[in-house]
Amino acid sequence: MTGLPSRLLRTIAHGLWAAVLLAYLAYALIFGIYAAALFRFPFDYDQGEGFELLDAIYFSRGQWPYRDIESYPFYASNYPPLFHLLAVPLVWIFGPRLIAGRLLSTAATLALAAAVGLAVRRWTGRWALAGWAGGMVLASNYVYHIGPLSRSHMMMVLFETLAVLALARADGFPDRRALIWGSLALMAAGWTKQHALITVLAVLAYLFLRDPRRAMGWALGFAGANLVLFFLVNWATQGYWWLHIIEANINEYDYRQAFFLYGQWFRLHAVVLILALSLVLYELYFDRLSLFSVWAVFAAAGGALAGKWGAGESYFITAVVAGILAAARFLSRLEGWTGRAVTDLAVPLALLLQAALVFHLPTDHPLTRPVARLLGLEGVRYVDRVGYTQLGHLPTAEDLHNGWKVVAYVRSAPGPALTEEASWALWADKEPVTNPTQLLNLYKNGQLNPEPLIRMIREQQFGVVVLRAQFYPQPVLDAIGQAYRPIDDVPVNGFLYRILAPRERSAAP
């Protein structure tokens, strides 16, 4: 290889980097196709979407979503308020529709990719490496799956990343301006989703390594400000904030689920993680630990929370982004050690391997159908290296038709409806009732008396019941089985929705 003329080496290198950028641009296009398909799909694609929208709807009415769980509508929220408050203007524009949350989450995901790419461009001065870093955010299977959904997770990761980028700009202890901006971004992340605590701990550890005394001062101030706000919200909601945010999130833990997701995370992002680990080991033994190394380690450890019941792949997205930044940091240093001749050949080959590891492709879209045909994937609805996944495929015309059929059942039934997902009730202009997973958690923790809800079910006050995963507490499911009978099973988006009517009468769309 060393005997090849330098001009030929440069030509090969340019071709490889062009292939890298083309591959990750293709993933960005696939993300856009998926997001656009979800914008047009009016129903819950993922079970929690409608309830995150419902929080925003309550805020748009000037009401708290953190409320009494033992009186109608028996609703329990799940997350802090920032994402839902930011969605309020979109609710005013689009009405109580999932497009509001999906637009906001997609914007946060694109902003995250841009922030990562621009940060790498600032370090390296190379647009090619910056393009890979930003594109890798969108290429990750986990980001692809979650990014366009009406979920708060991507907004949290955006704020976490902005905090790290602000605080890591100085080699020593951050100056006052960096501390202010970094702290505000960290605070925003925590008030978007509780999982941001992992990044808060990473920042504290990094600051402690730089200056223990000043780090403890920062920690006391940061914790104090957040605790004051926490208790003010708890007081304003008559204690239901604590119940919804803390008590309802104490879930059962399955270490096998955590081990499975760790293995999947590494298998999908192996090149990124090996490069990130290389930065950690180099800085640990030969240099000072940067915030990027510390964050990568803490975020990887935080993936253990994915073992909680109800958790999943989204808990690794922070680790994915932290890994990308650490990997890019290592690659920027590698070039200085080995020279461009080595990195311009070896690095793009490694990044192309990473592109193959995260391969995913919806095959039933006009822009992707020729690629599917070329790869021999005709007749396959969706391909993903994750293996079995409920996310990522494009909703079909049949899904849309059957979704409106479910709405027709809910709309035509007298009185309120008990629907396991919120969008069915919202499209029928009815108040969504309950958040089943939260009620189940609270029931298991001894914090819920289900009798008021069970009484309404036994009295058949709900004109129709729509079940999917049957995540209600068991006594609630027993009451439904005694008072209601199944009248139809409607497949939508890969799930089977069971429609039940009161036993003494039927419901018809």
UniProtKB/TrEMBL annotation:
The keyword Glycosyltransferase applies. It comes from the Bacteria. It is found in: Cell membrane. The keyword Transmembrane helix applies. Keywords: Cell membrane, Glycosyltransferase, Membrane, Transferase, Transmembrane, Transmembrane helix. The chain crosses the membrane at residues 12-37, 74-94, 101-120, 126-144, 179-209, 216-236, 265-282, 289-309, 315-332. One of its GO terms (biological process) is lipopolysaccharide biosynthetic process. Its main location: membrane. One of its GO terms (cellular component) is plasma membrane. It is a multi-pass membrane protein. GO terms for molecular function: pentosyltransferase activity. InterPro entries: LipidA_mod_glycosyltrf_83 (IPR050297). This is Glycosyltransferase RgtA/B/C/D-like domain-containing protein.
